[in-house]
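Reviewers of the previous submission asked for a worked example of the structure-prediction workflow described in the proposal, so we include one complete record here. The input consisted solely of the amino acid sequence. No template or homolog information was supplied to the procedure at any stage.
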Amino acid sequence: MRALTFLMALAACGAAGALDVRVLVASGPQLTVRLPPPPGPGLTLPLVGPPAPAAPSVPWTVGNRGGKLTLNGQDAGSDVLYVPPSEGSVVEIAGKTYRGGVLLRAAEGGVQGINVVDVEDYLRGVVPAEMPASWPAAALAAQAVIARTYVSARINPALPYDTCATESCQVYRGVAAEKPGTDAAIAATAGQVLAYGSKPAQTYFSSDSGGHTASSEEVWGRGIPYLVAQPDPYSADSPRARWRVEASAARVQDVAGRFGLKVGTVRSVGVTLTSESGRVLEVTVTGGAGSGRLGGLRAGDFVRALGAYSTRVRLGGSVGPGQPLVLEGSGAGHGVGLSQYGALGMARAGTDHRRILSFYYPGTTLEQLADAPGEGGRPVFAAAGTGHAE
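From that input alone, the workflow returned the following structure tokens.
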């Protein structure tokens, strides 16, 4: 039981931060975890100070035996083990180093590795993974605020973890991703979140709006007052400002079949309805056995399956042997909320992060998180917010 005794000693030394985020960073039949060195006399745990420290040196192989965790093959006697974060602490989980502590759970026949980390340290591994750290400070600051807002809205102590580390949630790469430029942007906006009413805003973003943002209504069928369609001239210089792709007749035929369109040999594809922002709402496919239509989300999924970078696209029409379908469009991603290349354009023009956020999320306010969570462990705003984003 030496492994369990050591782990419990570490847990006794840790102290949770004011606002911690639980991030699922790894899962599998077993995980390798490296923890700080064993505490000395009196169970004093040495601090590992900034900047990014070397990986801790004590390795543990964590498994699942009958729904209980094992440590280096020994029964840990529990389905959950927790080493809380402490000042400057780091932990290595499945070969990657993260700030903070670790929560290990027996789940689905395997082990979940959950990094428990202060929200500001968490952002240090998120912002440079979502936006190039070489971009202007105002663009990075805007990205920091929307990343902080995103995760703040998802902190829920009633669930096993708050968020994941992949594109399904928000990309988080830990210590290896950290950069001075993004660290500075995070520090400059410490605690700032966007709010609508008394709740964190839904801070969706995409790479490039293609010159016109999309509303949440047209993309997902759910209207949100501050996620609106509007002209966006700031994204004009992005790599996907204008693009052209070709889909072979075979590919078009295959995609039509996957979407259940029984029209025979496809002869033409056309956009028959567009949204306010110029995005596809309906596609009509015509073949030797008739025509079929796809609407709403399926229409957008159809053109993306053909290779489109966004649904702000025009189609060439006819298709056949030796005649590919031509798709010409602008932008990349869904276009809802902040356009990253638009934020870049605004920052280069001297716009600060408040005005960038005000443009892409009109009607929201910039608020400050309280120093400690509220009732139930959820984040709350400080009594006095920082006011309108503009």
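The two ends are 58 Å apart (CA to CA). We consider this example representative of the routine output the project will generate in years two and three.
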